[in-house]
Amino acid sequence: MTTLRSRIIAWAGRLYLARTQKKGFDLSRMSFLPESVLMPLRREGLDPVDELAAVREREPISKLPVPIAANVWLVTGYDEVKAVLGKANSFSSDFTNLVGKAGAGAEQNPGGLGFADPPVHTRLRRLLTPEFTMRRLGRLTPRIHEIVEERLDAMEKAGKNGDPVDIVHSFALPIPSLVICELLGVPYEDRADFERLSAARFDLFSGANASFGAISESLSYFRDIVKKQRENPGDGLLGMIVKEHGDSVSDEELAGLADGVLTGGFETTASMLALGALVLLQDPKHFAALHDGDDVVDRYVEELLRYLTVVQVAFPRFAREDLEIGGVQIASGDVVLCSLSGADRDGKLGPEMEQFDPTRNVPSHLAFGYGIHRCVGAELARMELRAAYPALVRRFPNMRLAANPEDLEFRKLSIVYGIESLPVHLNG
C-alpha cells in the first residue's frame, strides 16, 4: 500500500511539473500574439495584472487584436461573463468549432462535457450528476479525511529535523490525485498504468498537435479501464454508471467522461490547496481564525475560491447567432473568451474586491464557471478544501514560509494558475 501511494504521489508531481508551461495550446511559444491577448493569463503573485482591471473598468467586453478572420472578444465584467456563460442556446462549446483550426481534426475530439453542446452535453451530464451529489460523495468523506491526515503525517516526518517541507509536493498534489483515484474506482492492480499514461498525457503537451496526441493516448487507456468495468463494475464512478445505465452509454463516452474528471478534478484543486495555504501564511489573522473556529471554514473556502479563481479563462464560446451582450453587438461565428479571474474581482460586486476578505457577502463567485458547463465536481472540490485547510493549520500552528515571498515562482501564461513550490518551516 505504501509503495503504491508513493507511486501515485510521484505521478502527481510529474504531472504538475509537466503542466507548468504546457497548458494545451503552448501559449508561451505563440510570440505572434499581442500582449493584450496574453494579458488575461498573467498575474503578479496572487493577483491578476492591473491591466485586467483597467480593461474591465473601461470595456467589460472588448475586442482582441487576434490575427484570424473571426472577431475575438474578451469578457471581463461579472454580469457580462454570466450572460455569456448562461446562454447555451446562443453560444456553442462544441469541439467541431475547432476542427480544421489549431491542428485539430474531428478524430481528436476528447469527448466529455467541456467541448459538448446540448443535447449531447445534457445526456452526458445527467450520467455524471448523480455521482456528484452530496449523498454519493458522502461515501468519500472518510477517505478524504484519511488522505489529508496521511499527508500531514508525511509532512511531519519530513520536517522533523527542522528541514523545510514543500506544501505543493507533500500536500497539495497528492490529496486530489488520491481522491480522484478513489472517485473513479481505478482498480489497485491497474494504477501503475493509470499513473504512467496520465503522466505521459501531460508530458506531451508542447503545442496543439502534441496536446491532441496526448489526449488520444489517455483516452485509449480509459477505454481499457471502461472495458474492465463493463466486465466487473466496481463501486467507483465508472462502475456505478455502468451498473445504472448499461448499454445506454458507449465506451467512448465513458472514457471521455473519465478523462474529463481526471483533468478537471486534479490540477485545479491542487492549485487551490497550495495558493490558499499561501494566502493563510501571509496573514496571521486569517491563519489564526481558521485554526480556532469550525464556523468560519465555509466562508474562508468560498472567499479563497473567489479571490484566487485558479481557472482563469473559461472554455471558448462560439456565437451561434447575432446577439447583444452588455450593449455590445456580437456576430454569429465570433469567438468569446470569458475571464473568470477578472469577473470575480469586478468592483460592481462590492468594495475592495481585489482584497481577500472572508467576512464579505457577495453574489456567487464564478470560480467553478456558470451555466450548463459549471464544474460538475464543484462539491467534491469544496469537500477537499474544507477538510484540508483547517487540518493543515491545526496540525502545524507555528508554520511559516521558508522563502522570501518575492522569490516564490508562479506559473506564467497558464489557463490554471498555480505555484511551483511552497517551502515552509513547520515549527516556526
Automatic annotation (TrEMBL):
Q: Which UniProt keywords apply?
A: Heme, Iron, Metal-binding, Monooxygenase, Oxidoreductase
SUPFAM superfamilies named in the record: Cytochrome P450
One matching Pfam family, short form? Answer: p450
Q: Which InterPro entries match?
A: Cyt_P450, Cyt_P450_B, Cyt_P450_CS, Cyt_P450_sf
Q: Which domain of life is it from?
A: Bacteria
| MF terms (GO), sorted A to Z | heme binding; iron ion binding; monooxygenase activity; oxidoreductase activity, acting on paired donors, with incorporation or reduction of molecular oxygen
**Does the entry feature the keyword NADP, yes or no?**
no
Assigned protein family: Belongs to the cytochrome P450 family.
Q: What is this protein called?
A: Cytochrome P450
Species per Swiss-Prot/TrEMBL record: Streptomyces angustmyceticus
